Amino acid sequence: MRGVRQITANLYQISVGGASAFLVVEDMITVIDAGRRRSGPRILECIRDLGRSPEEISHIVSTHYHLDHIGGIAHLQAASAGRVAVHRSEVPFVQGGKPLPSPFRNPLLAFLMSPLVRLARPPRFSVDLCLQDGDMFEPLGGMEVVHTPGHTPGSISLYFSREGLLIAGDALAVRRGSLQLPSRWFTSDMAQAKESVRRLAGLDFEVLCLSHFPPLLKNASKDLRCFAENLH
Fold this sequence. Notes:
Blueprint: E1 4-8, E2 11-16, E3 19-25, E4 29-32, H1 40-49, E5 57-61, H2 67-70, H3 73-79, E6 83-87, H4 91-95, H5 107-120, E7 129-131, E8 136-137, E9 143-147, E10 156-160, E11 165-167, E12 173-175, E13 178-180, H6 190-200, E14 207-210, E15 213-216, H7 220-229
Parallel strand pairs: 4-5, 5-6, 6-7, 11-14
Antiparallel strand pairs: 1-2, 2-3, 3-4, 8-9, 9-10, 10-11, 12-13, 14-15
């Protein structure tokens, strides 16, 4: 399938407009992030191409509330019985109780880009599960929610200890082939982001998945520990 990478036997990464959605495909399907607005049909098409149906979606998990991660959630929610899960600090923003912040941290850039941001804002959606650090779910023998604030206040990573797998959303970036901190242009608190990286470096995993980059498939936690040890 074009734009779809199989990372492990049960995990797929789907390219959706410069970001990624992830599918954990077992008896039921867990969708992690949903790309930009109008990415929902693309994700459903990939599910059907795998010989599965939207009715098999059990959970739709957001790693954080930026527009390129939550854009397709409302569409997926309408097409399935999947329960939407968001960190509790970001629930008011995605449900519409509070204005969704601009992803641009520079005030001038946020002002200049505000017309495009308004056009890209996704439909609001309801949240079924308010996540917090340490929550556990069933996929891949155990999916642990790790609160990793910094990029946004409610950013989470998803840790599958039995699979040796970490999905870290935008908690990290890759530049020139090396792990880096998330972009300062889109990160709300870089000091928090560094602390979150240090926390993730304490986990044991082989494979690291990020939203805007190819996965690291070997010795990923070792690479992350080396990077974290040199943070200032």
